[in-house]
Amino acid sequence: SMRWGAASARSDALRWVRPLHSIVATFGPENEEPEIVPFEIDGVAAGNITYGHRFLAPDAIKVRRFDDYLPALEKAKVVLDADRRKNIVLHDARDLAFAQGLELIEDEGLLEEVAGLVEWPRALMGSFDESFLAIPPEVIRATIRANQKCFVLKRGPTLANKFVLVSNIEARDGGKEIVAGNERVVAARLSDAKFFWESDLKTPLEQRVPKLDSIVFHERLGTQGERVKRIEELAYELASKVGADPARAARAAHLAKADLVSEMVGEFPELQGLMGRYYAAAQGTAPSIAAAIEEHYKPQGPSDRTPTDPVSVSVALADKIDTLAGFWAINEKPTGSKDPYALRRAALGVIRLVLENGLRLPLLHTVRLAQSRMHIHANSAQDLLAFFADRLKVYLRDKGARHDLIDAVFALEDQDDLLMIVKRVDALGKFLDSDDGRNLLAGAKRAANILRAEEKKDGEGAFDQPANIEFISEYEERALKAAIDRASDETKERVKAEDFEGAMHALAKLRAPVDAFFDKVTVNADDQRLRKNRLQLLGELRAAMRRVADFSKIAG
């Protein structure tokens, strides 16, 4: 929206998407002449008059009700519905491309913008000199999109020297002058882009790196140059964990931000990384290093591709973890809907890089390693791990997993291996879908509730010691004790072998003895020795199950 009118200098001025010239407001039943609803906004009174296209049909239009409004505007060269304007633009642009044996490169964001700029959309085709095709296609697209709001076209896999513009009028000459005007502007902008491209190629990326020392990343986290050094060291450390050559990972990280001081990225910031790849390749850099310069920003959203090349993965992880570790170190975290540094996206990027590449990465150690290079006293790694847990819930929830199962696994100590956490969550979900799992969960939660209540009386950890076999008097107690011992040993071995489904199978054997125990045995016996021993037996049950997950965190 914009402030407009005489009071536009004031912050409390009326805000509207366009300057407000007239307001139509009528009301009345179908069988009667509608009345004007009387009110005014900033001096503009409501009425029953509107206007058509400013140039093609500027006369006043009297409106009775909405059924008249829509066709009257259409007759006056105004397409009211924004979705219909989008469809017209898209359909006409595709037709123009098809007629020339070309294909439209569709752009939803640009389509949305263009549809909001015109009332009576008319698609026209222009062209530019083929010599400009020597520029990278992404540069041509960015230039034409940013400066002229035009769509580009391709012939097969390569960009064509044609573009589609959208006019707001029906020109008497069929749009020749409009096309010619746009072609002149496009040619001028592409000439600038070609100059940037050729100028940038003259300076090796290595020579640009020192200039990063003059760009502040954040006043408390140093310059981009300092940040590059941190990312370089972290990428070197991470390389062995992702199967990358450490020297190549460090080299890619060293060059990763160099294009930020290029002419092209200065003009089109959205091309960062991509231009670095082009420049690196043109200067003879190894393909994996050149690719990593572009791909280290990825993934940038849930639908963005995740890098798979080990060098790219190393640098992408180092970049994102440095960002997260740094902002956590200075206590600049996302709050509510505010996330000015895109830290949620960075965390999701780390999660996707780890899971989609099947990586074993100790997050706590990695975060602490990153923070150790910042010369900031920070004790925030555990809190950042909790943030990763929240982001992992979002990621897995979109894939159908339950967030309480993630809580149950993260509640265990030293759980910072995302790949193993997901494997535990998957195994736990399958287990709880079975009858044994559901019934054992009920028994485990009953035991946890009893222990929680009694520990309030006797103190935290009062029942953590093993039950004394001498004080076990009932058959069901002995059966449960033996079952817990067997299940605990087997679960320990299965977890050690990372066989989480096997661990769940071992726990499933506890279902019958747990049910029998609660059916036949009074836990809070009058004899205090029996009471304590039975509570200790429940403590053993809780400990055995906590080898896999904290079942008290699970709903149900």
In short:
This protein is an alpha+beta fold and 556 residues long.
Structural class: alpha+beta
CATH C-level class of the largest domain? Mainly Alpha
Q: Shape from CA axes?
A: extended
Distance N to C terminus: 48 Å
Per DSSP, what share of the residues sits in E-state strands of 2 or more residues?
5-15%
Uncertain segments: none
- Mean pLDDT over all positions: 94
CATH topology of the largest domain, by name, is Hypothetical protein af1432
Proper CATH architecture of the largest domain? Orthogonal Bundle
> What's the number of extended β-strand segments?
15
Largest sheet: 4 strands, antiparallel
Radius of gyration: 33 Å
Spatial arrangement of strands, main beta sheet: 10-12-13-11
Helical content, roughly? 40-55%
Count of DSSP H/I helices: 22
Q: Could you say how many structural domains there are in total?
A: 4
Question: Your description of this structure?
Answer:
This protein has 556 residues and is α+β, with helices and mostly antiparallel strands. The protein has four domains: 2-75, no CATH class; 82-201, no CATH class; 208-400, Hypothetical protein af1432, CATH 1.10.3210; 430-553, Isoleucyl-tRNA Synthetase, Domain 1, CATH 1.10.730.10. Helix content is 53%, strand content 9%. It has 22 helices and 15 strands. It has helices spanning 66-75, 82-99, 108-115, 137-148, 176-201, 205-208, 224-242, 246-255, 263-267, 274-282, 287-295, 310-329, 343-356, 363-372, 381-397, 403-410, 418-432, 435-458, 475-496, 500-508, 511-520, 528-545; strands at residues 2-3, 15-16, 23-24, 26-27, 35-36, 40-41, 44-47, 49-51, 60-62, 103-104, 122-127, 151-155, 158-167, 216-218, 222-223. The strands form six sheets. It has a four-stranded antiparallel beta sheet with strand order 10-12-13-11, sandwiched between helices. The protein has a three-stranded mixed beta sheet with strand order 3-7-6, with no helix packed on it. The protein has a two-stranded antiparallel sheet with strand order 1-2. A hairpin with an 8-residue loop joins strand 8 (49-51) and strand 9 (60-62). Helix 8 packs across helix 11, helix 12 (310-329) crosses helix 14 (363-372) and helix 17 (418-432) runs parallel beside helix 20. The radius of gyration is 33 Å and the shape is extended. The relative contact order is 0.05. The model has no long low-confidence stretch (mean pLDDT 94).
